[in-house]
Amino acid sequence: MLTKDHAICIRATDYSETSQIVVLFTRENGKISAIAKGSKRPKSSFDGPIELFSCGQIIFAASHDSKLATLTEFEQKSHCSGLANNLFSLNCASFATELVNSLTTEYDPHPELFDQFLQFLQNTENSSSNRDCLALLILFQFSLLKEVGVQPILNICVNCKTRHQTFHRMPNGEDARCEIYFSSSANGLICRDCEPAFTDKLKLSAASANCLTDFKKIADANDKTLKEIEKVLIYHFTETLGRPPKMAKHILGRDDVG
Ligand SMILES: [Zn+2]
Questions:
Q1: Any idea what the Cα angle at residue 75 is, between residues 69 and 80, rounded to 5°?
Q2: Distance (Å) from CA 159 to ligand 1 centroid
Q3: Phi/psi of residue 236, nearest 5 degrees
Q4: Of 41, 64, 132, 231, most Cβ neighbours within 10 A?
Q5: Computed from CA positions of residues 228, 173, 159, 157, in that sequence, does the dihedral angle turn out positive or negative?
Q6: pLDDT by residue (tens digit) across 116-162?
Q7: Using CA atoms, how far apart are residues 208 and 168, in angstroms rounded to an integer?
Q8: DSSP classification of residue 65
Q9: Which domains does the chain have, with CATH numbers?
Q10: Residue 196 has pLDDT above 70, yes or no
């Protein structure tokens, strides 16, 4: 049975002189792995070799006895080719793509995540600064965690349920006691009273903690704060996946990742 869908290519490898094996993130069917026979021939029903980040309408046949579906058409409308103009935006898009591939399972549809991913790629392609790319990446990473069902708890202390505001502001208005940690094993923010019970954690600056409890602040956050938040996310993805994501070192540099 042939199925029509919209897809973004999240991985493409050569299979033979003329064919490719691709991993596509589709809107209605989730992630699929497929063979594209003849995709590298000059004339094919794929609009040329299938490239990473290409998106458009596809037709495929799922296979009952093999893992690979057969891709019969791919109308590659957009290649997000503008990403190649800026190495950092390309790295951010590649990192997001790696995470989508790692955190989704085949034939498990996430239409909203598909729409957000497409929007992220287009916004990143059009963004003019590295800071903006990093802010877009951070927001997309939180959307991804939410869509795959492992959204971190950021409004209250995961352990004692104290609201964030009450543990970083003293009655006299000072926020000197602001000590908030992110713990991956707790899947969220923990306060300073609960912090000793968690061995895996990162201490946050007040600026980062404020962004994490109110995503609207990410749009105006400075470079230092964004890098700190991204460090938290990379630590969290490393714990979640059981290994560091391959692209992580291209986002913050080896020193920052630690
Ligand atoms: Zn607590």
A1: 105
A2: 5
A3: -65, -45
A4: 231
A5: negative
A6: 999 999 999 999 899 999 999 999 999 999 999 999 999 899 999 98
A7: 12
A8: S
A9: 1-79 (2.40.50.140)
A10: yes
